[in-house]
Amino acid sequence: MKRFLFCLLAACTLTAAAQDTEKTVALDEVTVNGARTIQKVDGLWIYPTKRQIENSANGYSLLAKLTLPHIRVDESMNSITALTNLGAVQVRINDIIASRENLQTLDMQGVDHIEFIDNPGVRYGEGIAYVINIKMKKPVSGYVIGTQLTNTLTTTNGNESLFGKINYGRSEFALSYDLDYYNFKGAEYDELAAYELESGDITTIHRYSLNKQSKNISHNAQITYSLSDSNYVFQTKLSGSGDLQPQRRNSQMAINAALYDEHSSSRNSSPSIDLYYHQDFHRHQSLTANVVGTYIKTAGDAENNEGADYRYDIKGRTYSLWSEVIYENQLKPFTVSAGAQYGQRYSHNVYQGDVYAINDMHTSNLYLFSQLKGHLGKLSFMGGLGTSRRYYRQGDATQDLWFFRPKFTVNYPLTNKLKVKYDFEISQHTSQIALVSNVSIKQNAMETILGNPDIHPNRVISHQLKLSFSTPRFTSELQGYYRLNPHCNMEKYIRKDGHFYLTQTNGRSSENHQVYLNGRVVTDEGKTNADNECNFFYIDTYNQWDIIPEKLTATVYGGIYRFFNFGEDYTHTYTSFNGGCSLQTYLGHWTLGAYADNGWNFMEGEHRGHQAPAWYITCNYRVSDAFSISLYAQHPFSQHPLTNKTEVISRYVQKEISQHYRDYGNMLTLKLSYRFCHGRKYRDIQRSMNHSDKETGILSK
């Protein structure tokens, strides 16, 4: 069905294009005032149309209408996903990290433009592939209050939010409350696994669910005070989130027709405080400072009774402090910026029951950077160097490492419409905190996952070459990307006494760093003296066409991806196609849209992953300036859509895993948005912030 919809959307795009060519004279009343998309050395500046802003209930709705390259925006689920394996998506409002609540309560009339940075500089730290920076005008008077009620009509799933902002003089007060809940049923899990024992015999196990359920309810609230003038902004925010009811996942599983139960639940709370200050000096200089403190309290339990009873409880506390200082000088013809980030985190997690461990982790990170961005004639450039010091201590395991991150980008216009850009970067990849813990968790009767405290970060080298063509109505990009990950952290199955342990190693360096289980070294007769490498390259294209300006917009993108994985005792390669398309049409108060993609197909280590495809149909009706109604149809014409699929191709373990969710099929979601403004006037730029910690360091199933 997804292939049919993909072809249908592409056919509709071509048909609409042909009709537009034939009716050029009939569109004399349509004028194009200027390019909506402007090429920059680090990405694109996009100026939304008036209709896009008027017909967007919040920030998610606006970003979905822009159809950004390699980005999937789910309006009904309030999520933004990167359809690549390059890193995370960071959303900002006026350069400061934004929360989901910030996007849901975005003052749409204050939106100026969107900066889509697909080539983030050293300013943004490591592990960030895309930055979406929403530039807002500064409200100086009036107030806005509103609510958004989002409810799925075909299952139990919803998000209800209330918010309000008031500006008086130089002060702004803001308050928001958000309630999330869901209860998804009818999940179908199917796993076919084959294990090769030391004797050479193959044990085949078929695991599948008979009744699987996942539910959660959570509350989020924040209060913000801002004091600003023409040359400074001070802002403080108190926020809190928590699952007041445990998140539960219950399933009745079968293994070769023998029944057993799986259960898990978790409860957490997390208050945080965020202080932000920005000062402009002499018009072209500025200083920014930000300090964030976060506390996370976690409690949970898990039960997996395959083969024998297996239960454990988790209690954890995490304290973290994050700070940043940035100096910027906007000279001509370039801008100089420099700064520092410092983070300190302490996690204390206690596992009891069939898993017993006291996991104390101390981590700190110092990151220094400097960057030069500007132009020499027609040539635009951006060059920078980041230097970081990472300290980690857990029991007897200690790491104290320094890293360097050089990055260089040049952009040159071949003609007024055609530009070429090259980017080079060396960075480091650091494994999740949970994976470097000294905890082991049983996954099933045959497998256990092992944390490895001796994992070292690895170097990442990337090259990107992009050719872009743009006119006021048409934008097209063709790019090639190549990434090398030498001595990287690669997963490995270790076979020991008929059991299989999944861990991570650094290849050649792992000879000097043993993997432990309950104080005992877990070795493997198959270990070799090989280097780990995880490389890939792709060639893709992105095309967006305003077929009828401010009436009909079409987007088509896609590319070929090639993956190379060289482990200690394996070599795996994989080729995939990843692509999608969309249509947006504006008919007075109506906005209609359709979107489809085939997910993200990739291979990393010994896992071949297939991120679920998506296809949506959206309809929005703006009743008035204050009230709008939206209807989202997700995965139409599908009873049990695929939510994820994984293949494990290991020397000892081979698996095919798939999961389908009944409640995700033919999902209809209704959103009612009400927003009332009075006396709103704007100037300058509004700053908001959100850099709360989310990492608990807990290793789980």
Class per helix and strand makeup? mainly beta
- Report the radius of gyration as a whole number of Å: 26 Å
Major sheet attributes: 22 strands, antiparallel, barrel
Instruction: State mean pLDDT (0 to 100 scale).
Output: 83
* Global outline: globular
Q: Low-confidence runs (pLDDT<50, min 5 residues)?
A: 1-35, 509-513, 685-689
Name its key features.
single chain; 701 residues; mainly beta; 22-stranded antiparallel barrel; 4-stranded mixed β-sheet; 4 helices; 40 strands; 6% helix; globular; disordered N terminus
General description of the model:
- Helix content is 6%, strand content 66%.
- The protein has 701 residues and is mainly beta.
- The strands form 4 sheets. The protein has a 22-stranded antiparallel beta barrel. Strands 22-23-27-26 form a 4-stranded mixed sheet, with no helix packed on it. A two-stranded antiparallel sheet has the order 3-4.
- The radius of gyration is 26 Å and the shape is globular.
- The two termini are 32 Å apart.
Summarize the structure.
This protein is mainly beta and 701 residues long.
Could you outline the blueprint of secondary structure elements for this entry?
Blueprint lengths: L1 H21 L14 E4 L2 E4 L3 H5 L4 H8 L4 E4 L4 E4 L5 E6 L2 E2 L2 H5 L6 E7 L10 E25 L3 E13 L2 E15 L1 E10 L5 E27 L3 E24 L2 E24 L3 E20 L6 E20 L3 E20 L3 E20 L2 E16 L2 E17 L4 E12 L10 E3 L4 E4 L7 E13 L3 E11 L5 E7 L2 E7 L10 E2 L2 E2 L11 E16 L3 E15 L4 E17 L2 E8 L3 E4 L2 E5 L2 E9 L4 E8 L7 E8 L3 E9 L5 E19 L16
Parallel strand pairs: 5-8, 23-27
Antiparallel strand pairs: 1-2, 2-7, 3-4, 5-6, 7-8, 8-9, 8-40, 9-10, 10-12, 11-12, 11-39, 12-13, 13-14, 14-15, 15-16, 16-17, 17-18, 18-19, 19-20, 20-21, 21-24, 22-23, 24-25, 25-30, 26-27, 28-29, 30-31, 31-32, 32-33, 33-36, 34-35, 35-38, 36-37, 37-40, 38-39
